C-alpha cells in the first residue's frame, strides 16, 4: 500500500491500543469480590503539602482475599493516609494499628454487584466510543490522501476490520470482568 495509508493505519491502531489500555486500567479499579491494591490506586494523599498517589508514600498489598494492608514509608503519614482513604468515599473503613492501616473489604451485596457490573459496562462503552472515534479520524485522513478510489476503499475496509477486532476485544474484557463481579 501507500506510505501515508500505512502511517494512518499505524496511528489508528495505536489510538485503539490506548483505548484498550485505558479500559483495562478502569476495569482494574472496579472492585470485584476480592481485595486488590488497585482499589486504592486513585487515592491521593496530602504529602507535605502536595497531592501524591498513595502508592508513592506507602506499600499497598493484600495479605488475603478480604484485607488490604497499607504500610506507610514514614510513620507520621499514618493519619494523612487514613484521612485520604476516608475522604475518597470508596466505602472502606480503615483501621490503624500504629504501624499499618488495615482495610477489611466487606463482601458485596447483590445490588452492589449489579451496580458494579453497570459501571464496567459503561467503561466498556466509553472504550468503544474511543475506538469509533479513531475509526472516524482514520477514515477522514484516508479521504484526504491523493490515491485511487479503490485504494481508499481498501484502506477504509482495513480500518473497519481493525475496529471490529478491537470492539470484540472490549466485549471479551467486559464479559470477563462481569463474570468476576457477579461471582459470589
Order of strands across the biggest sheet?
Answer: 3-4-6-5
Give the low-pLDDT segments. none
Quote the beta fraction. Answer: 15-25%
Percent helix range = 55-70%
Structure classification: alpha+beta
Distance between the termini: 51 Å
How are helices and strands ordered from N to C? HEEEEHEEHH
Number of helices: 4
Largest sheet, if any? 4 strands, antiparallel
Instruction: Round the mean pLDDT to the nearest integer and report it.
Output: 88
Inertia-based shape: elongated
Description:
By secondary structure, the chain is α+β, with helices and mostly antiparallel strands. Helix content is 58%, strand content 15%. It contains 4 helices and 6 strands; from the N terminus they run H-E-E-E-E-H-E-E-H-H. The strands form 2 sheets. It has a 4-stranded antiparallel sheet with strand order 3-4-6-5, covered by helices on one side. Helix 1 runs antiparallel to helix 3 and helix 1 runs parallel beside helix 4. The chain is elongated, with a radius of gyration of 22 Å. The protein starts with a helix and ends with a helix. The relative contact order is 0.18.
Provide a brief overview of the structure.
With 184 residues, the protein is α+β, with helices and mostly antiparallel strands.
Topology, pairings included?
Layout: H1 3-29, E1 44-47, E2 50-53, E3 58-64, E4 67-72, H2 78-87, E5 94-96, E6 101-104, H3 110-144, H4 149-182
Antiparallel strand pairs: 1-2, 3-4, 4-6, 5-6
Helix pairs in contact: 1-3, 1-4, 3-4
